Every structure is written in C-alpha cells, then in structure tokens.
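Design request, tokens follow.
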C-alpha cells in the first residue's frame, strides 16, 4: 500500500461530479437529520477564501556525493592515484553534482487575519522560496515560523492585514457519517471543493510519530496537502495530509490532521519555536493487535478487555515508571476519557505539555487501577524544550579553504576559528579543529551545523557527536551535551 505525501490525491471526473449531484438530490427527498443539511454551498462560500495555494521552490545546489569508482576511467585520469592515495576510498570517490531546481505545489489555511497559515510540513520542508496565492489571486512571499515532522504540520507567515481567517471548530465534536468538504488546490485546479463524509476518527497509518487522523471519502488529490477539511458550517475541523492508495491516485479515502492537534502545535510553534511534546514514557500498541499476534503463536492471553493500549515496555525515569506502571498493563482511559487504541491516546497527549498532570486508568490482572502522573518531555523532565542556537557552542566557524582541502585530502568541513566559553570549550574542542560530521550528518556549511544543533536540542538525546580532523591530520571525536 502506498502512502502518498506531498502529492495528495488525483482527479475529479465528470462522472464523479454527476454521481455526487445525484446523491445530494436523492438525499433532499429523504428526512434530514438535525445538523446535517444537504446544501453545502454555505460551507464552500465560507471556507474557500481562507484556503491558499502554496508554491514551493528549492533552488539548484552543488552537492558532494560518494559515487562508485570506475577503475578504467580512474586509471586513465590518474594512473598513480591508487598508489599515492589521492582518491579512492573503499571503491568510492567524492564528486560534486548539481541538483536540479525543484518546484511543487500544495495548499494552506489562513488561521489569523494577520497572516498566519497552517499547512503540512512536507509541503514546505526544504524550501528556499515559498509563494502564497490567495483566493483573490493576490501573491505573497512566506516565511516558515516553525514545523513539526511528528505531526506533519507547519506554520508559515505572510505580511498581510485583514485576511479571511477561517473559523476553527473542535474536531472532537465531529461524528462519523457527518458531511465534510475538502478544500484545496489539487492537480493545478485551484480553489477546488469536494464533498464526502467522515469515515472514521483517530485513524493511524504508521507514517508520522503522532497520528490520529480523521478519515474521509471526500476526494483529495495531489496538491490538496495542507488544505482544509471543513464541516457544514464552513469551520475547519482538520488539515488534509495524506491518502491511502494502491495505485497512487485517489481511490476512496483521505486523511486529515484534527484541529485538536493543530491548535496545540500552532500555539507551541508561536510561543517556543518547537512543539512541547508530552509523553507517558511507554512503548506499546493496540491491545487487540497484541492479543491477535499471541493467538497466531498459539498463546492465549486475557487482559479483561479487548480495548485499550497494551504496554510492552516502560521507559526508565519516565512518567509511567514514576507511577509504578509495568509491562503488561493496558491503558483504558485518560482523565476519564475512554481510550480504545494507540491513536486515541496520542491525540489526547498531543494536547498536553510536559508538567501537566493526568489521571491514567489501566488494567492490571483484569482489575482497573487509576494513577495520577506528571507528564514529561522526551528528555525525561518537565522543562520547556527550545531550539538551541549556535551561540550555545561558544565558538566561531568558517568553511575550509581549497588549500586546506588539498593539504588534508578532504572535500568539505567547517573550521573552528575561535573558542570562547561554552559547550565546545567544555568538551575540549580547540581552535583549528575541522568539523566534518555531527550526529552522522555531513557538515559543509554553517547552516548545516545550525540545523543539526536545532534538531539535537529538542531530541530525546540532546547531544552532538562530532567527528573531525586537526590541521596535523589527527582525527578526533567529541561528545558535546547540549543540556545544562
């Protein structure tokens, strides 16, 4: 099964449109349930002005890559290379290649009159330029405020005033079977609306770290990513993010990130620049899946329930460990709210922050127990997690010169030109050291180092593992903790 990202869902045919119209006309003759009007024109009129087209541009770049050596071309270009070691490293050699310019399109949703727009992380990740086009064809350049890979959400900003911000509803209030509209820019067809129903809630696809998708059969196609899923009032209930397909085209179901998760992510990105993610400190999955796997192995297990989250491992020093929870427990409720599967637990936790207290109900030996626990961050404490800047390292850097590359027979690196008080000094790194890799990523520019530092500072293990070489040719390896 292919999970289609970046390009989300193919084409509306005239047959499909005719079918939809026929379905609506038929529904008008039937009794109309309270809150379920068949006329969706009001919702479309309300939502369309708030959904924007996003153009992504990634400029052409020169990259150094490892390529397999050709012994014949290598010999004729340098017949002594193998003897003097000027080239060749385990059958590979470094070559510079120019990447092509990349362009793509997606959608976004205006959530405030001053220009904040929500979209998918995969719509904007790696962009050098972002151009936002409004429903009235006005164009703006956009900048990324923050992004979160775990939820596939991003917050971008344009400089505008009195923009048509969408009304945001509580996605917990929507019901399976309720009419919804998907609004976006599929297949180059801007300002497109498709209709369907909510097919399921709290659905997991195994693509992101945090998932509790709203599943819908409203047609979503390539270009709909980051667009709006709205209710019959034209209120936002989700951000369209993915489809499930065997063919790579729309075959019936799309998936949207609920506004309950979106609101928390947006608030965190605005305030902290990164998401404050609260975790219980467990590994596990749906209890039904665990029981089914045991049955396949000829084992019978009985937890006293077939609904909930089975705990397979409790993380040391995590919130669950502090509360005395252990492997084999089954979480069935949080703050009195029933939990039947992992996606539901993730949706609840996605609204929390480290330091929040929750009441956790779980089954042990077929008996219910309830514990109040204090949620922690992925680093095992309740502190606010912020992106670290290069200033924390207490050093200055510059890209190495051609002379240094030739002298040390290396193709890239970042030289430490000055060491002040900071993390690098504490780790014993001195002036002149050339950084080549950090956390297994090649470091060629200051931007590369900044990105790795930011990622590491908010990770479960906030440490930089730095590899490099001194001007004498001596190689060295350092561990630089980013925590205080």
């Amino acid at each position: 099964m292919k999970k289609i990202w970046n390009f989300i869902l193919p084409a509306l045919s005239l047959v499909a449109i005719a079918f939809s119209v026929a379905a609506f006309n038929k529904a008008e003759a039937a009794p109309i349930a309270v809150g379920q009007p068949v006329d969706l024109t009001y919702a479309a009129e309300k939502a369309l002005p708030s959904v924007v087209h996003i153009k992504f541009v990634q400029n052409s770049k020169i990259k150094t890559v490892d390529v397999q050596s050709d012994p014949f071309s290598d010999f004729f270009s340098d017949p002594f290379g193998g003897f003097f070691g000027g080239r060749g490293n385990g059958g590979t050699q470094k070559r510079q290649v120019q990447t092509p310019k990349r362009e793509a399109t997606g959608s976004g949703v205006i959530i405030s009159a001053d220009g904040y727009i929500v979209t998918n992380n995969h719509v904007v990740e790696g962009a050098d330029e972002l151009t936002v086009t409004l429903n009235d064809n006005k164009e703006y350049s956009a900048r990324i405020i923050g992004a979160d890979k775990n939820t596939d959400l991003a917050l971008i900003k344009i400089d505008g005033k009195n923009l048509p911000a969408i009304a945001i509803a509580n996605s917990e209030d929507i019901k399976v079977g309720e009419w919804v509209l998907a609004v976006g820019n599929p297949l180059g067809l801007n300002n497109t609306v498709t209709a369907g129903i909510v097919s399921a809630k709290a659905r997991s696809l195994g693509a992101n770290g945090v998932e509790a998708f709203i599943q819908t059969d409203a047609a979503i196609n390539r270009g709909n990513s980051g667009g709006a899923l709205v209710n019959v009032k034209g209120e936002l209930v989700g951000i369209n993010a993915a489809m499930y397909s065997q063919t790579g085209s729309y075959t019936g179901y799309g998936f949207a990130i609920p506004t309950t998760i979106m609101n928390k992510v947006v608030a965190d990105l605005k305030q902290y620049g990164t998401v404050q993610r609260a975790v219980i400190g467990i590994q596990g999955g749906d209890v039904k899946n665990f029981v089914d796997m045991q049955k396949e192995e000829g084992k019978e297990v009985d937890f006293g329930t077939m609904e909930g989250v089975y705990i397979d491992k409790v993380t040391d020093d995590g919130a669950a460990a502090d509360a005395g929870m252990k492997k084999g427990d089954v979480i069935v409720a949080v703050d009195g709210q029933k939990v039947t599967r992992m996606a539901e637990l993730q949706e609840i936790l996605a609204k929390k922050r480290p330091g929040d207290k929750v009441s956790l109900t779980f089954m042990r030996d077929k008996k219910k127990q309830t514990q109040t626990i204090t949620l922690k961050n992925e680093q095992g404490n309740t502190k606010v997690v912020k992106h670290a800047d290069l200033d924390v390292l207490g050093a200055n850097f510059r890209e190495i010169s051609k002379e240094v590359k030739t002298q040390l027979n290396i193709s890239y690196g970042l030289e430490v030109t000055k060491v002040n008080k900071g993390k690098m000094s504490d780790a014993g790194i001195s002036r002149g050291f050339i950084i080549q890799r950090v956390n297994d990523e090649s470091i060629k520019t200051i931007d590369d180092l900044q990105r790795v530092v930011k990622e590491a500072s908010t990770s479960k293990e906030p440490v930089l593992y730095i590899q490099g070489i001194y001007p004498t040719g001596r190689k060295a390896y350092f561990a630089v903790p980013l925590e205080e």
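Comment from the thread starter after seeing the answer: thanks! Residues 1-32, 79-89 have pLDDT under 50 and may be disordered.
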